[in-house]
Automatic annotation (TrEMBL):
Substrate-binding subunit of tRNA (adenine-N1-)-methyltransferase, which catalyzes the formation of N1-methyladenine at position 58 (m1A58) in initiator methionyl-tRNA. GO terms for biological process: tRNA methylation. Signal peptide: none annotated. Heterotetramer. Keywords: Nucleus, tRNA processing. It is found in: Nucleus. Residues 70-96, 270-332, 443-468 are annotated as: Disordered. This is tRNA (adenine(58)-N(1))-methyltransferase non-catalytic subunit TRM6. Pfam families: Gcd10p. It comes from the Eukaryota. Residues 73-96, 272-287, 312-332, 452-468 have a biased composition (Basic and acidic residues).
Amino acid sequence: MADNGDEDSEYRIKVGDCVVLKRGDIFKAMQIQLGKKVIFEKQWIFLDKTVGQLYSTTFDIVSGGNLLPQKPKNADDASDAKEAGTDNRNIVDDGKSQKLTRDDIETLKEQGLKGQEIIQQLIDNSSTFRDKTEYAQDKYIKKKKKKYENTVTILKPSCRILAMMYHGREPGKICHLRYDTLAQMLTLGNVHAGSKVLVFETCAGLVLGSVMERMGGHGSVVQMYPGGGPVRAGMESFGFPAHFHDTLHEFPICHVNALLAGTLDTTGKHSSAVEKQSDKDKEKEQNQPEAEQAGEQQDGPEDPNMETVTAEEARVEKEKKEKEKRKEAKAQEKRMKLAAAVAQLEGRNADGLIIASRFHPSSVVMGLLKFLAPSRPFVIYSQYKEALIECFTKLKEHGGTVNVRLTDTWLRHYQVLPNRTHPLLLMSGGGGYLLSGTTVATDTAKPSGSQRVEEPAAKRQKLTDTEG
């Protein structure tokens, strides 16, 4: 039994795990913390009792916001209706078919009846349910379940689940990147374990997390970021182990030109010298009033408050030094991260480039392509095709790339049920556009116009014999 427990421990919910709550088509990512109230779909719940349960378990929300694992459904479930009509033409929706009123339903809730029991009461008190067709009955039950069943499912985060969550709740944060388009980006970018991938994205870290998940903690990822620091909220929702973060490096996009030109300073020696000089000046300024105070104490009368003032100044000075130390430690850590990223980029031998940004991609692409090794893929996502068309033209003019293609995808969901398989009425209008291609090595030593490339001697001889 212990061995089985160890084998499925990774599939069980633990304290501190990042999970995704699901109810219907609504998702929400969060972390398991004991005693913490969580609001989901306008309802407060506690996740304490989910610890130790398997992922993908559905829980009933009971009184007090606690979660209990849902019991297996009985054979005589309300969805298994025995009586059904042949058609719905004689059914009139006049609002009088249901005998239970709103107050009656609230009374049933107060009595502690669960969602399934309330649905059964609605079925028993409906005068038209038995006359509906089997399909109409299933549709009725599904609608009532959505309204009265109080359940939540705990899922393990994955690329697909988080992409669906962001696209359903906050599509603007991920530039309206749909999960099927994200899957194509990972495929076209040839992301796999052991590769070195450059990622530039403004999709809340979703693309970065998807790349890291696909690599499985093997290889290296360099995140190019704009602004003051990288955004990784989406990546952190995956809940990766610690060794995954060891493969992640960060590099500010504003330093790309300096790195390509060889003028980027990663040691910070100049800034350190300036800081040391300023510290010396501060010490002189601090020592000067102390000396003056000492002189005053010798010449003039003693001040009883002098000792208190000196202690207060010492405390302030100590706090100031500690603050400077923390600032210096933070700056040193930032320099170390920058140096580690530079070490990954200096060889210009990256295996792939993935860009998904709200910024215009042309200037970014032309700079980052120089870090790729020859015969390596790149893929660029944009919500608008006009930006990618301009980027396509620049790539063709500049050279160094082949198989450059601009594509878009079309996704449509289908309901697949016996005798009623059909596309759903609502669907996504568009999943954005992808520009992909492969880098090649360019030969800069091209022959001039006056030089003529001679044919091999054997070929010239053959042509001469044929003409004769």
